[in-house]
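Quiz preparation item.
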């Protein structure tokens, strides 16, 4: 057995892609409290290198046929043209070696190995103790003893496709730059393998941050359709990059070569997996797209939006997006901050008003924090508040109580442009998943 010795560093591994079948291991063959990184044959990162996924076991293994699972799909930047895909920041997310070097540089140097050698330790197939891996602060792994998902088996996706897990295209941006934006194909492969190996499930929790937070919301209806008897929980941490009925969404939907829009601009692209037809084709052109989706699934999908109002990464990404895309070459961080603030409150106010009770939750803090589930939790909004960590854990347990929406910054007085201030129908409903369950049970009597 390979013994992995970890240095004092942070390692960020994000998301997986594949176009081939995936056979998941029998849980009885896995050691408790470990993570295994295993390959998906035929699957490649954006630059053509191999992709891997992680399977995470809890400290106490579940029964022979567990019915609750979770998938951690951490963030990572997208790219959409030659300039963005060769940018110093965005290009990091096209190969696992560059991701490892960025976030484990201290450990790599301390161990006297190269980034590739360090990655080779991870992908050796040996069980890596989760207590050691969790200490790196690489992601949100809430199945530790006492955690909200204790006892559940999870999956972990290192990201290296530059599409936040939504694409199924190989794009020739120029004669010397081809990128495999096939993260959506890989995510679909994992989900299908889980359905074959571990169904039936009563609950499947999707956890995403930054770019993958947006995509996990987009994936929610497709996952609900794949698992028609399963409750789907989605934690969307720092997901305000792209919201329905915004300029950012319209650009992504219409102009990005790997967009799932069947009528989008795909002149430089070809399908990565031509047999794959079941990726999300979400169309968020309507401002009510998320509430409409939640109503359609009648409470079986539940969303949590977690974030800081002036998230520094989202503001920076929006500024670069508007420049790369020529939506606004004169964009500044101040103008991006104002744009994102307006979009956030408009979206959340409408969500609060229109979403079914018990289906949408949000906790928005002041400040510029990003990716709280990995980088540390923001302070409580006030002394009597739960705070974002407890609020998130209660959501994962399926038992939040009190207000479904907790916002900083006097947001209750925000009125979306072009709308009259109206009373929120959600305020008249009991904001609790437990209350929702009681209501449904009563209706069945």
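Solution:
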């Amino acid at each position: 057995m390979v013994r992995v010795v970890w240095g004092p560093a942070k390692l960020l591994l994000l998301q997986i892609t594949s176009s081939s079948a995936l056979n998941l291991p029998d849980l009885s063959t896995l050691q408790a409290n470990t993570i295994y990184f295993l390959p998906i044959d035929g699957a490649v990162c954006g630059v053509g290198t191999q992709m891997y996924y992680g399977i995470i076991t809890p400290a106490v293994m579940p029964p022979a046929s567990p019915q609750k699972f979770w998938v951690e799909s951490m963030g990572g930047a997208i790219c959409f043209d030659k300039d963005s895909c060769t940018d110093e920041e965005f290009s990091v997310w096209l190969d696992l070696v560059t991701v490892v070097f960025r976030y484990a540089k201290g450990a790599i140097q301390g161990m006297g190995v190269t980034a590739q050698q360090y990655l080779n330790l991870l992908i050796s197939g040996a069980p890596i103790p989760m207590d050691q891996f969790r200490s790196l602060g690489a992601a949100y792994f809430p199945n530790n003893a006492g955690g909200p998902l204790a006892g559940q088996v999870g999956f972990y996706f290192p990201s290296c496709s530059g599409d936040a897990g939504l694409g199924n295209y190989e794009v020739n941006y120029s004669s010397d730059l081809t990128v495999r934006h096939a993260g959506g194909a890989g995510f679909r492969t994992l989900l299908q393998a889980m359905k074959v190996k571990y169904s039936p499930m009563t609950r499947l929790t999707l956890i995403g941050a930054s770019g993958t937070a947006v995509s996990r919301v987009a994936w929610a209806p497709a996952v609900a359709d794949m698992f028609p008897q399963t409750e789907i929980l989605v934690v969307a941490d720092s997901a305000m990059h792209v919201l329905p009925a915004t300029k950012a969404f319209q650009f992504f939907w219409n102009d990005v070569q790997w967009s799932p829009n069947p009528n989008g601009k795909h002149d430089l692209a070809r399908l990565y997996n031509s047999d794959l037809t079941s990726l999300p084709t979400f169309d968020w052109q309507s401002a009510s797209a998320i509430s409409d989706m939640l109503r359609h699934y009648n409470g079986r999908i539940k969303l949590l939006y977690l974030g800081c109002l002036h998230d520094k990464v989202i503001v920076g990404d929006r500024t670069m997006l508007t420049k790369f895309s020529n939506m606004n070459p004169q964009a500044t961080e101040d103008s991006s901050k104002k744009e994102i603030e307006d979009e956030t409150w408009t979206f959340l106010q409408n969500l609060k008003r229109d979403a079914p009770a018990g289906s949408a939750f949000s906790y928005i803090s002041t400040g510029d924090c990003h990716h709280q589930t990995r980088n540390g939790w923001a302070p409580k909004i006030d002394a009597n508040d739960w705070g974002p960590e407890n609020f998130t854990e209660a959501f994962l347990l399926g038992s939040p109580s009190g207000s479904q929406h907790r916002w900083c910054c006097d947001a209750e007085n925000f009125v979306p442009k072009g709308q009259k201030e109206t009373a929120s129908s959600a305020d008249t409903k009991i904001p609790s998943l437990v209350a929702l369950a009681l209501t449904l049970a009563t209706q069945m009597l």
